[in-house]
Design a protein that fits this description.
The chain is of the alpha/beta class and about 210 residues long. About 35% of the residues lie in helices and about 20% in strands. Helix 1 packs across helix 5 (about 185-195), helix 2 (about 55-60) crosses helix 3 and helix 3 (about 80-95) runs parallel beside helix 4.
């Protein structure tokens, strides 16, 4: 399987690339700068902007699946459009090239997972620091859901850099969920598993420890 990874130079994206390579996948990564990916091995790197359909078309050629781990910095006041713009472009290119499998990371607080982050996250951090980001995550999810792709949206709880430990809980019934945490390495493992699994096809599980 040949996989395109977007957001490959981010903290989670790097782990996804490494996991996919370790699982024997041929990995292509679309990156803004190859220099930022100099310490990653085993993947082919193509420079370009993930919002540019032409760059996406070059990168996706011959691929069987796409992973999007695109992220953006906190933006309390400035409008955020990167995630939704890139995702709309991606959905179009995937449809045009008949690449159907998409695994996309958004986050706890997106869509119907809003209100399940715990008091501090729900009442303070998200509305004050992440509101613009999550508005764009919601638009990103809407673009994916409106497509005819074979998609899985993954919503991790608060990310940490602890070692992978397994025992991931994947949930769509969020009754009783009020926050949580998970290692980026466990997120990467779950993401790579979804490239060939149908358990969460066209679903948006929240994942946590």
């Amino acid at each position: 399987m040949k996989v395109l990874v977007l957001g490959a130079t981010g903290a989670t994206g790097r782990l996804i690339v490494s996991k996919a390579v370790a699982n024997g996948y041929e990995v292509v990564a679309l990156v803004r700068s190859k220099a930022k990916a100099a310490d990653l091995s085993g993947a082919e790197f193509i420079e370009g902007d993930a919002r540019d359909p032409a760059a996406l078309a070059r990168a996706i050629a011959g691929c069987d699946a796409v992973v999007s781990s695109l992220g953006t910095a906190m933006s309390p006041f400035k409008e955020v459009t990167l995630l939704s713009t890139a995702t709309r472009a991606l959905v179009g290119v995937m449809a045009a090239q008949n690449v159907r499998r998409l695994v996309c990371i958004t986050g706890l607080g997106a869509g119907d997972s809003r209100g399940h982050g715990g008091f501090f996250f729900d009442r303070l951090f998200l509305p004050l620091m992440l509101r613009k980001v999550y508005e764009d995550k919601n638009r990103q999810e809407d673009a994916i859901r409106a497509s005819n792709l074979d998609w899985t949206i993954i919503r991790p709880t608060i990310l940490n850099d602890k070692p992978e430990r397994g025992g991931i809980k994947a949930l769509t019934d969020l009754s009783g969920v009020h926050g949580g945490t998970i290692a980026r390495a466990d997120v990467a493992e779950f993401v790579v598993q979804q490239l060939t699994a149908d358990t969460w096809l066209r679903k948006a599980p929240l994942i946590t420890w």
